[in-house]
Amino acid sequence: MRKSRGSSVRGGQTARKEKFIKRRKIDFSDIPELSDKQLSSMRRVGRPTLGDEPRKLIAIRLDPKILQWIRKTAEKKGLPYQSFIHTILAKEMKKGG
Fold first, then answer.
1. List of residues 6+ apart from 5 with CB closer than 8 A
2. What is the reported pLDDT for 13?
3. What is the pTM of this model?
4. What would the pLDDT profile of 27-54 be if each residue is shown by its tens digit?
5. C-alpha distances in angstroms, 72 versus 23, 58, 60, 68, 78?
6. In CA terms, which of 10, 60, 78, 79 is 20 to 30 Å from 86?
7. Plot region of 49 (φ>0 → left; ψ -120 to 50 → alpha; else → beta)
8. Virtual CA dihedral for 70, 76, 79, 82, nearest 10 degrees?
9. DSSP summary character for residue 1
């Protein structure tokens, strides 16, 4: 069975870097504590797992005009375009199509 290292090459590289960093002892004593204002302005980085299982990474080929429409429409709705594609497909699935 293949060992999963993340959903991308970059994910695998990050995992290897973290492993290396854990071996070294990092001294955080010279880093000042964050203020409440700084902490409240932080945002989560990365994608949280949605649902019971993590989403699967796939590759599809789309006509450039379709992709352009998807990206433009997603931007108007304030969504990442891949999440917008997911929403469209989930609605179709619920219709029984």
1. 11, 12, 15
2. 66
3. 0.48
4. 888 999 999 999 999 887 776 666 777 7
5. 45, 21, 18, 6, 10
6. 10
7. beta
8. 10
9. -
How does the average pLDDT of the chain come out, rounded? 82
Residues of 73-82 as b/e, b for ≥16 C-beta within 10 angstroms?
Answer: ebeeeeeebe
- Name the residue among 45, 61, 58, 48 with its Cα closest to residue 8: 58
Which CA distances in Å does 5 have to 2, 13, 44, 59, 95?
A: 9, 9, 21, 18, 35
